[in-house]
């Protein structure tokens, strides 16, 4: 990949992270964004507020997992991003947020059932919540991968959300939709209404339709 292409990706990561911040999906300095390279990855730095972040602040991690001196430190969730790219060859971007409604649900260690057809956007008939592990740990990466099996999103217990995409735009869109769905689900629960869950056959039809989107006719 050329330097110009990498610069473009750094700018896209910066813009994407700022869009999460502007939408209220990444309170404080929470959340992180990465994109896979042919070898290694680019990831948001640790502890830099999004509005102050510049494309040059995005941290490059080489194929061996090391980063060059003189850069900011990478996000503390680097092990999570690494584990996802290693286990899921189709994934080219990872977005992690502490978006409020999805995080609230994760604190009850509950996932999202098929109460709305948009759940299929995450690749299956539900969005699971992982088991709990300390942020930044290898154990969290392991538990997240388990919850992500066959899915493009999962909640992380007492923590937040992780969303995957074939590109950055998809991972950002899924992260935003998970927050939207979690908000709707919490509204239902708060109204003490019983969600009517769509059956497996309907969710499969919807997944097939989603898979067709964007393909040439
Ligand atoms: Zn986090």
Can you describe this structure?
Strands 3-2-1-4-6-5 form a six-stranded antiparallel sheet, with helices on both faces. The relative contact order is 0.15. The radius of gyration is 17 Å and the shape is globular. The chain is 39% helix and 12% strand. Helix 2 (78-87) packs across helix 4 and helix 3 (100-107) crosses helix 5. It has six helices and six strands. Strand 1 and strand 2 (41-43) form a beta hairpin.
Descriptive key words:
binds zinc ion; 217 residues; globular; 6 helices; alpha+beta; 6-stranded antiparallel beta sheet
In brief, what are we looking at here?
The chain has helices spanning 3-22, 78-87, 100-107, 138-147, 168-190, 200-212; strands at 32-36, 41-43, 59-61, 93-97, 153-156, 160-165.
Number of DSSP strand runs = 6
Spans where pLDDT lies below 50 across 5 or more residues: none
> What ions, cofactors and ligands are bound?
zinc ion
As a percent range, the share of strand residues is 5-15%
Could you report the average pLDDT, rounded to the nearest whole number? Answer: 94
* Element string (H = helix, E = strand): HEEEHEHHEEHH
Taking strands numbered 1, 2, ... along the chain, how are they ordered across the largest sheet? 3-2-1-4-6-5
Quaternary structure classification: single chain
Radius of gyration: 17 Å
Distance between the termini: 30 Å
Based on secondary structure, the structural category is alpha+beta
Shape: globular
Helix run count: 6
